[in-house]
Amino acid sequence: MAARTKARKRALDLLFEAEQRGLNVGDLLRERLAAPVTEAPLPQYTADLVEGVVGHWADIDELLATYSQGWSLERMPAVDRAILRLGAYEVLYAEDVPEPVAISEAVGLATELSTDDSPKFVNGLLARLAEVKPTLA
Question: Where in this chain does the entry annotate a coiled-coil region (predicted)?
């Protein structure tokens, strides 16, 4: 598994854990950076992703809600919400990640970790965000 793929998975784990435990994800990130719970410390790219999602949280959630066609954020499985937030951040704001790569990585996480229908949903929603990205300035 590539280093960035692992970093994305760890970022997803933090986003999901924070939501499930009712914690602020920024606080959880700082806690994990200060005192890692695994042998390997968090990669810098994991921290960059989580900080990016946190920095654009409201805009990301608004866009996901707007373009998800009949699915409110609350109705989505929690893991899909976390995957979509992460993928949306990379599609919309990460200048060093090509949009197709960000979408593919998010679909891979959905395939590995969520329902049978999730990869198609994640792919469609993130592709739509990539399509409308030029109009969002």
Answer: none
CA–CA dist 17, 40 (Å, integer): 18
Residue in this structure with the two tokens 């229908």, named with its chain if needed: 117
User: Do 103 and 65 contact (CB within 8 A), yes or no?
Assistant: no
Query: Which is nearest to 84 in space by CA: 46, 129, 117?
Result: 129
Domain range list for the chain: 3-135
| Least confident piece of the model among 21-25, 35-39, 57-61, 96-100 | 35-39
Judge contact between 85 and 15, C-beta under 8 A. yes
- 68-79: pLDDT as tens digits: 988 899 999 999
The pTM of this model reads 0.95
Amino acid found at 117: D
Place of tokens 């970093």: 7
Distance CA 78, CA 55 (A): 20
- The third-level CATH classification (topology) of the domain covering 3-135 is N-utilizing Substance Protein B Homolog; Chain A (1.10.940)
Helix (H) or strand (E) holding 7, with range, is helix 3-21
Structure tokens at 43: 């990669």
